[in-house]
């Protein structure tokens, strides 16, 4: 697939996606969002991919939505190989069912939070700024709230959304938005650790966790037991378990 605004690469068990609109601070357009959606579907569908790594070209990780393009769709540059659908980045990353790692080397602004809030792990440089400026523009970071809700109390979400000033990587770690400072040795070790983990098991586990979000507690265990049995019945999983047992 030839993408306009992202680059992708598969190496061994790793699928790497790089946001590649550096001249516009990686601000996303409808086409760019749909290219990300196309790539994420490929990650989900490819059983050889065990982990998804998200990066960005240029000095800014993502400056959020390209407001001019969203206000005037004629400014967007379509990708003829992909049909644009009305979908948000939050939805796309909620549909990602493989472990994901965001490698953040530039500032994250506004809708750029949707990328990192959708990832399993987030590692960022120490000297970065994170900012939700929407309230100062007379709007509100509505979609970002959905991702924030999974990691912090509603009171803290509102305090963050009401403050358009920048905050540091230290604060992002304190809030749970970032997991740790970017250390390449630790990052590469983490990426390598997924090589021998069952992609079927990881995918099934992530799907199950999402499914029980709104289930009554008395329904969760029967559903999870059925999910376990369904996973164990897969020929690929039987072969995986047998191979592990034979190796001792």
Give a written overview of the molecule.
It is a single chain. With 248 residues, the protein is α/β, with parallel strands linked by helices. It has eleven helices and ten strands. The chain has helices spanning 30-45, 67-71, 89-94, 113-117, 142-148, 154-161, 169-175, 184-193, 199-211, 217-232, 235-246, and strands at residues 6-11, 14-19, 51-56, 60-62, 100-104, 107-109, 121-124, 129-131, 167-168, 180-181. It has a six-stranded mixed sheet. Helix 9 (199-211) packs antiparallel against helix 10 (217-232). It is globular. The relative contact order is 0.12. The model has no long low-confidence stretch (mean pLDDT 95).
Features:
six-stranded mixed β-sheet, single chain, four-stranded mixed β-sheet, 248 residues, 16% strand
Q: TL;DR?
A:
The chain is of the alpha/beta class and 248 residues long. Helices cover 42% and strands 16% of the residues. Strand 2, helix 1 and strand 3 form a beta-alpha-beta unit.
């Amino acid at each position: 697939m030839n993408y306009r605004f992202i680059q992708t690469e598969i190496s061994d068990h790793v699928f790497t996606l790089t946001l590649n609109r550096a001249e516009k601070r990686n601000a996303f357009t409808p086409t760019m969002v749909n290219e990300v959606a196309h790539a994420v579907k490929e990650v989900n569908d490819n059983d050889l991919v065990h982990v998804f790594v998200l990066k960005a070209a240029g000095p800014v990780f993502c400056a959020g939505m390209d407001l001019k393009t969203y206000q005037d769709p004629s400014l967007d540059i379509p990708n003829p190989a992909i049909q644009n659908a009305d979908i948000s980045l939050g939805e796309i990353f909620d549909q990602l069912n493989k472990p994901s790692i965001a490698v953040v080397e530039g500032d994250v602004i506004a809708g750029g939070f949707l990328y990192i809030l959708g990832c399993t792990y987030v590692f960022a440089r120490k000297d970065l700024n994170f900012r939700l400026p929407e309230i100062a523009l007379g709007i509100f970071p509505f979609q970002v709230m959905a991702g924030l809700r999974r990691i912090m109390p509603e009171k803290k979400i509102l305090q963050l959304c009401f403050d358009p000033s920048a905050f540091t990587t230290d604060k992002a770690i304190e809030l749970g938005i970032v997991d740790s400072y970017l250390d390449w040795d630790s990052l590469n070790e983490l990426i390598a650790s997924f090589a021998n983990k069952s992609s079927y098991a990881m995918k099934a586990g992530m799907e199950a966790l999402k499914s029980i979000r709104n289930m009554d507690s008395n329904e969760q265990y029967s559903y999870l037991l059925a999910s376990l049995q369904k996973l164990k019945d897969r020929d690929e999983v039987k072969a995986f378990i047998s191979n592990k047992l034979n190796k001792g």
